[in-house]
Amino acid sequence: MSKLSNAVAFLNHHLSLWRCPVCHQPFARVVDHSLVCPQNHWFDVNKKGTLNFLNHPVKTEYQKTMFTHRRHLLQAGFFTPFLQELAQYLPHAGNVIDVGCGEGTPTQLLSQLVPGNYIGFDIAKDGINLATQQVTRCFFCVADLTNLPFNNQQIDAVVDIFSPSAYQEFARVLAPHGVLLKIIPNRGYLHELREALYHGEDKATYDNHAILQRFMTIYPNALVQPITYHFALNDTTFHDLVAMTPLTWRASAQQLQSLFMQPLSQITVDVTLLVAKKD
Description:
An eight-stranded mixed β-sheet has the order 4-7-6-5-8-9-11-10, with helices on both faces. By secondary structure, it is an alpha/beta fold. It is globular and about 60 Å long. GO terms for molecular function: metal ion binding; methyltransferase activity. Pfam families: Methyltransf_25, Zn_ribbon_RlmA. It comes from Candidatus Paralactobacillus gallistercoris. Keywords: Metal-binding, Methyltransferase, S-adenosyl-L-methionine, Transferase, Zinc.
């Protein structure tokens, strides 16, 4: 079957998951390769098997080149240890959404670790276009996390890896006893790269206090699990890291030149996994 046919089959089988982002009514039917709501708003599945739920294009710094390098680095195992930890809290055979999924590698890996119905979405079309190039059963779409195209209480797990959060929307779509799994960077995340580029500047350090405090205010009973490991770099993965992280996007030509003169041989992945269950 083509990607278009597979996507249409997924929508038909999981029609109850979706609601119209314009009028917020549940989609009533699939007509040919389009989702249609009772107010006659149509959203077409394209040939790549994706849907675009945005009302207008969104400008983003996250472009195809960055996503390509991110894919290479993640497929080399950069996120794998903390994704394996996160997967332990995923429901078996549940409906899972991956917020800000980018090029889809984490979504795909999680779907292999724990079976379920996985939907990845991002506002960046370049990321979603790359995500659909995988051989996968995951469904990918372009959508806004502040206006999720999902019906109330239909999602068993929300996965949020380094992405902004819309906690009110997450609470709306999560089913009773659903789980929110959020990964945030800690002070030591990529510290070798920060220090190499910005030694002596404020950008050489990072503090997640505000993000963590907000999460714990909303979910005071959440599990807080620090995860730290070192990832070995070779010439290829070092260049992928530099190209994919926003840390380098504001660096001067001189800072980047100095970095490439002494490439890093390893990098620290220092994150916290936050696990909150809905009552």
